[in-house]
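Troubleshooting: if your tokenizer reports a length mismatch, compare your output against this known-good record of 502 residues.
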Amino acid sequence: MEFEFIGRQQELRRMDDLWNRKTAQFLVLYGRRRVGKTALLVEWIRRSHNRALYWVASPTSLAAQLRDFSQAIYSFSHPDVQVPEHFTYATWKQAFEEIATLAQEQRLALFIDEFTFLLEVNPGIAGELQNLWDHRLSHTNLFLCLSGSHLGMMKREFLSYQAPLYGRASAQIYLKPFFFGQTKLFFPKYSAVDRVAIYSIFGGVPAYWMQIDQSKSVSQTIKRELLTPNNLMQAEPRLLLQDFISATHNYISILSAIANGAHTIKEISQEAGIPNVNPPKYLAVLTDAGFVERRVPVTNIGPSREGRYHITDPYLRFYFRFLVGRQAQIALGVQEQALAEITRHMIDFIGTYTWEEICREWVLRAGAAGILPYLPDEVGSAWNSKAQVDVVGINTMEKTIILGECKWLLKPADRKVMAELVEEKASLIIPTKGNWKVFFLGFSRSGWTSGSLAYQDEINRNPVKGENWVSTGMQLIDLERLDREMNELTNGVPKYYGEIEI
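Known-good structure output:
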């Protein structure tokens, strides 16, 4: 189904700012596939009506790429003339010299999408472009944007100190998937519970969202979009991986291991059936690609041996948890059995991953908006051999810490959830050096029992203390409140807190 263009206002304003400057500007735009880079560039052209040439590279030969680019330039500069069938500039230098001429007197935006396809075929083009930018293009009225999906390659070619194009860009935009707070704009017919479920499956990737029909239930969406033979979403994980690697089998084994609860190198090695010495090599590639990240307790200062690996992309996490092992069922059209198994585990899956991640994001935004008493420098989780806390926001300079528990249950969470956090876990997680102020948070899908609310009032009236910490209060939050505030804070709704951009 079709959507109107929603969001990305900060990125569009940034592009407007670069265009409105009086000198040549160079923007690097990067982000994973399907995240909306092309849509952003096309929307900016549509809204601004500025003089712009958009060209997308293809994974073809060097000669074919140069010919295609040359014909795009010719068509732009001769709009009323048929492009000669075999027209091409002899070199990339000649092609960009023509761009320089077109931008000499009049402002021109040149957007080269999927630039990494050029780099794969001709790695030397980065050096050529650096020389052209330094000696020719930077002295024109050109607004140049290079866009790419291969995160590792884009970082190496533009952000690495050794890269030819390092330091040439005026700005960079790392286009991330949409946040949970934007689901209400896209899916106004879905309840908050359904939108959390959708987000836990598809993440915030706009191209995935466009496949979803709000008139269908979440279960119907899973059956239609994920459990039918030959659907596009089944091929997506391998397509994403093939951008970075050719032999995918060991990487698939590792992603499956992580999705099924293996997070340390030892656990991953055992679950994947790969010798202990090999996973770090594969994990480094997956981390470079942006599919996996190594998390450490946010309370740790300096290097940590407590690292745990997590899949960052929600759809990959869902696919390798629920779908990769059901390819035979899907091929045979056995939907009901697969759907029943997914449904049986979905509450635990959401509670373990997506709900905690949404709650951590809320802490970041609420801290910045002044809803919380402290502004954390970092938000994550914390664990050791004795305890684990789902949400931890810490400010080491101010010696303030937020500790939160998350529950995705069908019934209200009881007093025991917060009592264990306050009376047992806090002293085991709070750093031992310094005197800390602690604020407690509880997040529950279905709200809180009367006993929990009474305990909240008790903690707010009578602060509790540990050996090197004292509490300053507690808030218990349900899904309804979190959903409302995430919508306001993410989209800049000036209902309570003014316009906020994070």
